Amino acid sequence: MAKDEYGFETLALHAGAAPDSATGARAVPIYQNTSYVFDDADHAASLFNLQEPGFIYSRLTNPTVAVLEERLAALEKGIGATATASGHAAQMIALLPLMGPGDHIIASSKLYGGSITQMGHTFKKFGWQVSFVDPSDPDAFQKALTAKTKAIFVECLANPGGVVVDLEPIAAIAHGAGIPLIVDNTMATPYLCRPGEFGADIVTHSTTKFLSGQGTALGGAVIDCDSFDFHNPEKFPSLATPAPEYHGLTFTESFGNLAYTLYGHAVGLRDIGPTQQPMNAFLTILGIETLPVRMDRHIANARIVADYLDGHAAIASVGYAGLPSSPYYDLARKYMPKGPGSVFTFKLKGGYEVGRKLVNAVELFSHLANIGDAKSLILHPASTTHNQLTKEQQTAAGAGPDVIRLSIGLETVEDLIRDLDRALAIATA
Ligand code: PLP
Question: Is a pLDDT exceeding 70 seen at residue 1?
C-alpha cells in the first residue's frame, strides 16, 4: 500500500519513523547529539555545500527532529517541514525566505496576541512591515496589497476568539498577487483542518499546544504544502537568486520544490538558530501518536461545556464556532467538519472583576497561559496574553476585559461543569 494512501491515524503513528536500524528500538530514539562524524573530507565538503543530504550539526538537522518534520509534513500533506524551537520561531522561519528590509505582509487582526506583538513590533526591527486587517473581510486583504507584499498570514481558527477564517477567497487574493498564503494551524491541527486543501501554501504550528498535547514540550513547525512556485527572482530573491554563502547556488534551481524547506534549515536555522531540541521533538512525536483520539474527546467535551455556558444566567455570550448561534458556525462546518477545536471564549455579564474572581475560584481548571493541554485550562486574556495590546487591539482580537478563555481538556466532563458552576456562583455572589 502506498504511503500516501494511509489514513490519518496510521500516519500519526508511523510517518517518518521505522524501527531503529541500529538497535531495533520501536520508539523513535532521542538523538541527544550535537554533531555527526563525516565519512571523509569529500563527504564533509559535499554536506557543507548542500550537494548531498545528511547530518552535520544539530542546529541545522537532527535525526529525532527529522522524524517529527517528516511526520508533520505527511499529516499536512506537504512536501517538507522545518521544526523550530517554538511557534513564534516558526513564524520567523516561515517569513525569512520571503522577506527583506522594506517588505510587507498582510496579517489577520485576530491572531493570537503574542503574534500581533511579534509581527507588529519586533518584525519591524528587521524592516518588515505588517498591515493587520479584519479576516472576515477578504476585500480588506485585497486593499492592503502593495508592490512589496510578500505573504498573507492568518490563523484558520483564531486564538482566542473562536473565529473561523474563510481561507479560500483569501488564498485566491494571495495567488492573484503572486504571493503565498501562510496559515497558522495550531488551534485546529491537521486532524481537524488541512489548510493546504483550501489554498494555503505554507502552514505554521505551535506544536506546544495540541500536537504535543500535554503541556510538556515547547516547539513549532513550518510546512511547505507544495502548491506555490517560488521561482520568481524579483519577488523572492533569497530563494530564486544565487546565494553568495553557498558559492552562488540558487535554491529554487538546485532543490526545486524543496527550496523553501531547505532554505529554512540551511539559512534560517543555521543563522537565526531557533532549533527544536531532540527531547522536545520526541515528546511531540509521542503526542502526535494519540492526536486523533485526543482531539475527538477534546471536541466532545468542549461541545458539552459550551452548551452549559450558553444557558448560564451570568454569561452574556459564548464564542464557540460549534454552537449554531455562532456567526462562524457554517465556516466551521466547511473547514473543520469534525469540530472547531476545544479552545473558546465567553463573555461575563459582570465584566473584568467577575472574570478575575472566576479564575481565582476554579479548582479543576488550571489558571495559566497555555492551550491544548490534556488538562483543562482557564485564562483572562486581557490581563495576561493580550495585556501588551491596546484596548482596541484586545477587542479586535476577541480578548476584551469581560472575556474568559477556556481550553477544554480530557477530564470527565461532568467534573468540569461542576467546577465551572461552583466558581461562577462564587464569582457572581
Ligand atoms: N500561534 C498560536 C495560535 C498560539 O496560540 C501560540 C501560542 O500561544 C503561538 C502561535 C506561539 O507559539 P509558542 O508559544 O510555541 O511560541
Answer: no
